[in-house]
Amino acid sequence: MWATHPDDPQESLCFGTTVGYMVLWQQGPRESNFKDFLAKRLTQGGEVIVLACNTSGDTKVRIAVSTRDKIVQVWNYDPKEVLHPVFLVELGVTIPRHLGFADNVTQDIYVFGLFNGQMQMLRGNDSKIISIHKVSQRIGSAAISDRHNQFVVDNNLDGFSLHQLDDDAYIWVPKQVAFGEDSKVIVGGSDHGAMYVFDRRMGATLDVLHHTDEGLVQTLTTHDNAGKSMIITASSGFCHKSSICLWAHIQHKEKPVMSLKRHWTLGSVIKYIWYMFINLTILLAAGAFVYQNLNVWSIKSIYMAMGKTH
To answer: Measured between alpha carbons, how far is residue 131 from residues 70, 121, 166, 174, 245 in Å?
Structure first.
């Protein structure tokens, strides 16, 4: 995730590792280069599951991290590139599956539990539990839209469910999920290689994007910039070949266009050449058949004409 200070011209990138490290990269003099300037081992060293970042503060960026060993840890990241701990708390019953910051002064934190299906709100300065809401039996993934005061989860039962953020009121039932196009749509993966785009208000399926022929679409993210909405999807190599796809949705006023940009692989090139060869063979065979029959019909016409003259 990006963890850049509001007034910092250089971008900062933050990510976690399977051995419990939180790593910060900062953009170098060349815009395409990043340098590794901070790596911090988290308590107990469990795998980092999710990170969240809040850049709405005046000078400090707040970073929250959850790990597989049920830890939620929060820091302030100041303009001098120093991390200051805010709190650390261990959740007793579940693994934090998603984190999000509330839009308030204390920067409270929403914690979505994997096994208990709960959404907890932790106070931003001391980790005290403010509220607990039961959302589902389990939560596979979640995303928050502060603008619309809503959140969406993969409920691990029948798809996605949309809720109000303040009281957990259930709105609509439609694998990782995300908001897109300025929260107008909800994007979700599947276990059969397809990516679905739903209308946030009505729940209608707006588009089905083909990621791969089969397998789990495991990871996705969205990004909006200058009238263009990007959807990036990825599938792991657990049962099938790993692949990453990028879609660009140009937001025209009258008729949006969804186009697929995808890297060619050797297999896809061979498949395309074979497909063109088969079609060309069929076309040539059809042409030969028509040409042969035209010759037969012409010869019959000549014989008939000769017979009439005799």
So the answer is: 18, 5, 10, 26, 38
Q: What distance in Å separates the CA atoms of residue 277 and residue 287, rounded to the nearest whole number?
A: 15
| Nearest by Cα to 160 from 197, 131, 118, 211 | 197
pLDDT per position as a tens digit, 106-149: 999 999 998 888 999 999 999 999 999 888 888 888 989 888 88
pLDDT at 296: 55
DSSP helix/strand/coil, 304: helix
If you average pLDDT over every residue of the chain, what do you get? 80
Please, are residues 158 and 173 in contact by the beta-carbon 8 Å criterion? Answer: yes
What is the phi/psi pair of residue 12, to 5°?
Answer: -120, 135
Residue 158: both structure tokens together: 């029948």
Tokens of 286: 């059809």
Map residue 287 onto helix, strand or coil. Answer: helix
What phi, psi does 251 have (nearest 5°)?
-85, 80
Q: Do the beta carbons of residue 199 and residue 217 sit within 8 Å?
A: no
